[in-house]
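Budget justification, computational time. The allocation requested in the original proposal was used primarily to generate structure tokens for proteins on the priority list. As evidence of use, we reproduce two of the resulting records. The first is shown immediately below.
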Amino acid sequence: MRFRVWRIIRYVEILTVSVLAVFALFTYRELSALRKQPVALPQYEFEAADDPEKGRVVRSRGTWIAELGPPEPLQTTTIECRKSSMQCLESAATVVFVGDRGVLESVQTVFDVDRWTDAEIVSKPTPVKCTNRTLVIDVANKHTRSRVSAAEERGACKARPEGTLDLVTGFKVRDAIQKASQ
């Protein structure tokens, strides 16, 4: 009888440890996923308005996603174009991973506008981190794109293929990053 009770206690202990191990595995997988994507990215927004002080202003906000090629890092971008100054200011906050820690980096880029019509705003090519970027804002369809091409001066830069980035709502980028990591 005593041996039987001891055996039942052992089985209960083994079952308890097994269940806890399964929960630990699920918790570890969930925390690993959160470390890879530690932030919630914002929705896409687009606004075109006439401001009495600033003149015509077009604002767009979202997350860049590559049409083809490797996914862009986790980031959020706000673009404000003013017709009075014929410039677009892009403010981007990017999560850069150093080991398993995410560090937030902030960068502002000024794009000079080449052409501004009621339907479209196109910037001049602007050098940005080993590439040249051109903003193309389709005001009529409320869509923002960036054409990326290789910079003339390469120096220590790796060759990057030409491509197009679309400003989209944040969950689309998270889905693309998850698919790329699988």
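The second record produced under the same allocation is shown here.
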Amino acid sequence: MSTDSTPLFQSEPDFGASDIQANLRKLERRDLWVWGNAAIIILSLTAAVVTLSVSFYLKGEKTFFGLDLKIAVRALVVLVLIFTCQMIYQHLRMRKIQRALAEQQIQAEVFRRLAMFDPLTGLYNRRYAEQRLRSEIARSERRGLSMLVVLVDLNDFKQINDEHGHLAGDHVLKEFAKCLNRSTRGSDLAARWGGDEFILLLLDCEVSQLSLVLVRLEGLQVEFQGKALPITFSVGWKAYEPGDQFDELIEEADRNLYAHKAAAKAPRPPVPTPA
């Protein structure tokens, strides 16, 4: 599913993911700083040990600032070992904290996806679609852009569930969602509105262009347990006009949807037979 062109808005909760990422970055910087200083200190202590050892063995010096040179060298070696052990302990402790934060980040990402996506179809869910629509209304109002709100409802979906079972119904929803997502551009939005109803948000799109999207959905058949299930749908849409509000767009698209559905179910007049 294409999501790279769909931005996350500040109103969308991240369940602490941003704080966790900030803490991870701080830990990484602290880790680099600590190990940089540790390397300098260890090298300095090692150089001191080497210098004292050379002085002891080559120059025959016995003392270092009034201390026995052997004792001074051993003390420096012990300091190097203690400091190294301490740094290893601190590193392991920081790695443990990083793993804990990484696990929290994964959990936050899971919760974020649950808050944004429909688990069955993989499309955005109604909650996210509402937030996105409100944001796009404000954008269209500022810039004078065109936008279409399209509601899509599957016909006779209850009949599919009754005749073939709910597994078949779920399979139909998933396959239709894939087709719906493929039929839109990356800048558009396809979301599950609820049940067997979906919503399309087509940006910079005129009503005359809507047929280009709908034609890609026509004639769809879904294979389930060796049976071909034909999928038909009804649509209702509302083109954004300056001053339109969220509720007005949804209500008008919904009225057009049910008018389309009722017209599809209306019995056709009998064809007159020639005398």
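A brief technical remark on that second record: Residues 1-13, 271-275 have pLDDT under 50 and may be disordered.
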